[in-house]
């Protein structure tokens, strides 16, 4: 099972935190910090895997990818395959790239709710849901299309829209 | 200028339609980005949180505005600030009918709330309603919330709806429903136990995605109970076959692999089902062979499937052909340049050697390389492998390596782990006593207090008893070498407390035993120990007891002990100590000093640590006394268990309970004080040196231990006996060689009983077996000394090769004599062979011809590259990760795509942007700058982004200014 997805920049500032088992905010922050401490200490040309049992408990590992100014980190337990997780990061990044056209950190900062939407289409409740970035993209587009069409409704006062909804 | 900024902002917002946030949010992000310190950032967010708190509570906040507030709250909480005041508003938002608001609400609550939060109760109703919605997106959002927010108690409330959704017409919904059900199973298996058949049913879903999702819960179910799913083996094999033969729709391909994630899950399941089941494994051989044959090795995901197949093969009933294929794949991993693949290779090797230890031999070289690698993860994985491979023949080299590594890391968690592994290996395979003690010293010195207390006791025990040999000479030699090493180590600053305890004990027992050091010298050293800055009470207790023992030995010998001034001051200090334990020890020492030599000898006999104390649990020797007292009119003793009915003032507890039940009021202040948890200082006392050999850290064995033997009292005796017995067995068995422990398992306690005052009386049978042991041990040091040199030279060089060593050691037990005859020959030959081995391995790397990521560089269609790469032989092809991070990557995706095989459909589907960026990366990789390509084909995009970046002023990192430069061109 995937325990957490963390996206942070190379200065340790979180850009997206998603824990599939609830962690209180302080704990989330602490975990992010310790992950960053581990990652920033790693040289460039080494493997993308880190054993994380000191941070997340026994048996957990994390896979990370350092891309431009961002670290993409997936934390998971022994039920997952490291190389496959690495590819899942690839799927996520690919999707983000298609979504934002030349994705960079700023896109993620300003659209982190969209980022959540994308992630929810890839990982659901800690399990891999979808690995085709094309289909993820299609789903996300459909969501945003529907949201847009319904967002026109949201200009109408609540009482009216309430009637519409029923 | 101001206007321009606004335009830029609007561009930034407008570019992504409804997703964008308002100006305020951009300002917030901007100011955070500009914050120079953590404190400043905190201040900004606190201000933001305050303003949100105020505004969110205003009446009639427009709903769209509210949505933005909620998102800003999520953002603030992500940065570590409390946003709990807004939770209720997020909950309210989930009730909204408009989809964007509802989704935002769900997103916020899943991030904010734990499954046990009080507000969940307000959401359950909404979730129930939404699960029935016509709009499948609403259903999906609700399902996502279900996964995160529903706990054991609320499962029944939504369960019927979720089950209903398993037959929803939309496959996306079915998939998510299966996963939600899986989540319920994880939360509380009992709640969905009657629905397990649904998973089996969904396995036959005609959408492969749903089938794939079903594999996750089935994997969990099979983990819990393998046997009830054996019937599915054939179906799983069938599915895997179909997938591997590419009979799934093309859309499930990923990087030219057919549904790799489904394959991986299936392989994991098959590994479980085939474990130890010959018949089930038989069904799998065919399809596994197919996968090995067909598997794509050029892509990351192909290797993932391959690795999973190796795991599967190593788990199921062994099949020679498949093992061969697995070994071959493993060797390809190990020979790869990618650290990731090496890591997988080392892991796979660790699995395969469990079945066939010989496989490791041909990879010794690669393994050594991994050990020398700067990559920490790889190193740890390799240590794990070595740990599995350790035999009595290579233990010295491996443990030596581990200790070396242990010294250099600062991560306490891993240090503890590796230290315990060192100890375990040393205990299991130690070739000589000296080596064991040296190793333990190193472990203690560097891992110190991270080591388990038990280990220290084992070490003390070993020094006291040796290996159970009857060779007095060897034993005393062992002791004096230990004393020597400890006196030397004491010179070092900052020794860990546990190690000091061992040192003090050994110096006290054996410091003066061989007459090499005068007692005053040892006592002086011990006093130094207590004067150290960080000396805790336990160490002080050990030290003063050691001093006491030395004084006692001196007095018993008839020599006069003159008190050193520092020792006297130590006694003075401790006799006024806050710790009663230390006080007692100090007074005992003072009392002992006044005794005459004969008395001292009987109180404190020399080397009595091996004596076993007979404890009479029933206290039979008191019978007469009790009888006499009763005759004299004393009331007979009533056991505590029978006493409860009596209204005794001293029986406070029962009285209190009685009171509590009658009054129904509980006054916390009257609660009984709890017994203090596990006290720290084990009691070391005068007449029972054995007690400080096994200072059991349980509360049961506290100060009564000493009294028990001095004037056997009632309470402590039994517990003390229990405590000591506890430590006696098990310890011995853990220690010795397998032969020893197995032969003398039950009699290990008796052997210690027989050792009194260092004189051993051993019966015929025991001595026979021990003689044999001695013989073998005496031979082994010769062999191992030989090997140690060999191994050192082998392991030390980069072209090291333990293979030779491994084979020779395998022969060792059979033909010790032959080996001993020509050690010189073996030694002179080994460097040659190792060179021979090393030389071909280098071209091997080149000849491999496996289509690893480097070959993709060569195939790369871009002209610049052809020119650059073509003629260069590239002897050591650059690593994947070197590409991505060795140079400042200009763009996120440029780096991301380096991992992709550029051929085939995937590259065709790439946008031209990324392709171009791809080439940029490649060129920068080869360290030539081709500035003309650096411009992206979407100048508007780049410009827009740059404008946004500039006006927002967020330069997210100082490290990589290139990000924006590249975008600009």
TrEMBL record, chain A:
Keywords: Cytoplasmic vesicle, Golgi apparatus, Membrane, Protein transport, Transport. It holds the Pfam family Clat_adaptor_s. GO terms for biological process: Golgi to vacuole transport; intracellular protein transport; vesicle-mediated transport. Its main location: membrane. InterPro entries: AP_complex_ssu, AP_mu_sigma_su, APS3, Clathrin_sm-chain_CS, Longin-like_dom_sf. It is found in: Cytoplasmic vesicle membrane; Golgi apparatus. It comes from the Eukaryota. Residues 1-145 form the AP complex mu/sigma subunit domain. The keyword Protein transport applies. One of its GO terms (cellular component) is AP-3 adaptor complex. It is a peripheral membrane protein. Belongs to the adaptor complexes small subunit family. This is AP complex subunit sigma.
TrEMBL record, chain B:
The keyword Acyltransferase does not apply. Belongs to the adaptor complexes large subunit family. Subunit of novel type of clathrin- or non-clathrin-associated protein coat involved in targeting proteins from the trans-Golgi network (TGN) to the endosomal-lysosomal system. It comes from Musa acuminata subsp. malaccensis. GO terms for molecular function: cargo adaptor activity. Its main location: membrane. The keyword Iron does not apply. Residues 913-931 have a biased composition (Polar residues). GO terms for cellular component: AP-4 adaptor complex; endomembrane system. Residues 769-789, 829-838 have a biased composition (Basic and acidic residues). This is AP-4 complex subunit epsilon. PANTHER family: ADAPTIN, ALPHA/GAMMA/EPSILON. Gene3D superfamilies: Leucine-rich Repeat Variant. It is found in: Endomembrane system. It comes from the Eukaryota. Residues 57-593 form the Clathrin/coatomer adaptor adaptin-like N-terminal domain. Residues 729-858, 897-969 are annotated as: Disordered. GO terms for biological process: intracellular protein transport.
